[in-house]
Amino acid sequence: MGIPKFPMHNVHFYKSLQNICIAVVLAFSAASSFNILHNMPRKQKYANFYTNYDPMVSFNRMMAGGYLDSCPPKK
After folding, report:
1. Helix (H, G, I), strand (E, B) or coil at 44
2. pLDDT (0 to 100) of residue 5
3. What's the rounded Cα separation, in Å, for the pair 1 and 28?
């Protein structure tokens, strides 16, 4: 009996497959963590802002401040 040879058949294929699987898992985890940690709180902030938002109050404030050229400020 001789010394067993190192199994070199398909080593590159399996290492490449392993690297691709790790890259896919990391990409999905990065995208999901960005969605959970960044986008969901931002959506909640927008929802909270627009539940109490009155566009006429903002319009009147901008008009009184002279920011709108089409509407002269009321005196």
Report:
1. helix
2. 75
3. 49
Q: What is the mean pLDDT of each run of 10 residues along the chain (75 residues)?
A: 77 94 98 98 96 93 87 73
Cβ contact 73:63 at 8 Å: yes
Q: Given this model, what pLDDT does residue 75 score?
A: 62
Contact in structure between 63 and 74 (CB atoms under 8 Å): yes
Q: Is 15 exposed, middle or buried (0-12, 13-18, 19+ CB in 10 A)?
A: exposed
What length does the chain have? 75
Quote the tokens at residue 2.
Answer: 């001789």
Q: Distance between CA 35 and CA 27 in Å, rounded?
A: 12
- Contact residues for 74 (Cβ-Cβ < 8 A; gap 6+): 63, 64
- Local structure of residue 42 (DSSP, 8 states): H
